[in-house]
Write a structure and sequence with these properties.
It holds the Pfam family Ribosomal_S14. 50% of the residues lie in helices and 4% in strands. It is mostly helical. The chain has two domains: 1-61, Helix Hairpins (Orthogonal Bundle), CATH 1.10.287.1480; 62-101, Ribosomal Protein S14/S29 (30s Ribosomal Protein S14, Chain N, Irregular), CATH 4.10.830.
Length: 101
């Protein structure tokens, strides 16, 4: 199980990303528009850099919904490999059976 502080930090990042998404998108659009003057594009880049770092979607991690584990994450199930194995062994994931040979 991940530390509670790490899970809460991730939730805070998700809130910030959602909060600043439209502002960040508009500033990026201005900064990348070649038809605008160089000064205006530069000002947009400066404003973009003044936004909180955690408002960038790149800083988000995928985490297991049950344990908060950041590694070995299955996107389709939103679980880590460990929880996937435990739930499959308990028969709680339909269609998944433990292999044996």
């Amino acid at each position: 199980m991940a530390k509670v502080s790490m899970i809460e930090r991730q939730k805070k990042r998700e809130r910030l990303v959602k909060q600043y998404a439209s502002k960040r998108a508009s500033l990026k659009e201005i900064a990348n528009d070649e038809s605008k003057p160089m000064e205006e594009r530069f000002k947009a880049r400066l404003k973009l850099s003044e936004l909180p770092r955690n408002s960038s979607p790149v800083r988000l991690n995928n985490r297991c919904q049950l344990t908060g584990r950041p590694r070995a994450y299955y996107r389709k199930l939103k679980l880590s490999r460990i929880m996937l194995r435990d739930l499959a062994s308990q028969g709680k994931i339909p269609g998944m059976v433990k292999s044996s040979w």
